[in-house]
Amino acid sequence: MPRTIDYGNLMHRAMRGLIQDVLRDVAENGLPGEHHFFITFDTEHPDVELADWLSDRYPEDMTVVMQHWYDNLNVTDEGFSVTLNFGDSPEPLYIPYDAIKTFVDPSVEFGLRFETQDEGEEEGLHEVVAEEPDEEAPAALDVEPEPAKPAEVVSLDSFRKT
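Above: the chain's sequence. Below: its structure in token form.
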């Protein structure tokens, strides 16, 4: 088999590194301004650690919100641990970067989505899509999307050669 550049895995590592850098900064300095995160992860990933009642309630994936209250944020090269509040019950979580499906900061309309490829394709490759965040926010936050800005019409006549 000829040697090729594996852009998919290179992007995968780069985007996970971006998440690590952001979380490390938040661990050291706190969340700036209106920044907050919706992080969806695979609860079936073998290295995810969460309370049994949470894995029972969310058997496939789960979205957590880091905004007003979080504690014990510890960022490593493989993942991060954080304590979050679930209905007045603080619960520690460990989420490896490889378990993350989406990472969204709606305050600046930034989002990453990691998708595994279809079965039959080479295992371990992921498609990484940088996109605007999904408008489906967790129900508890009641986030209103900003209205769309009207399109501007630009005349090209002034650029034509005569």
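The two ends are 56 Å apart (CA to CA).
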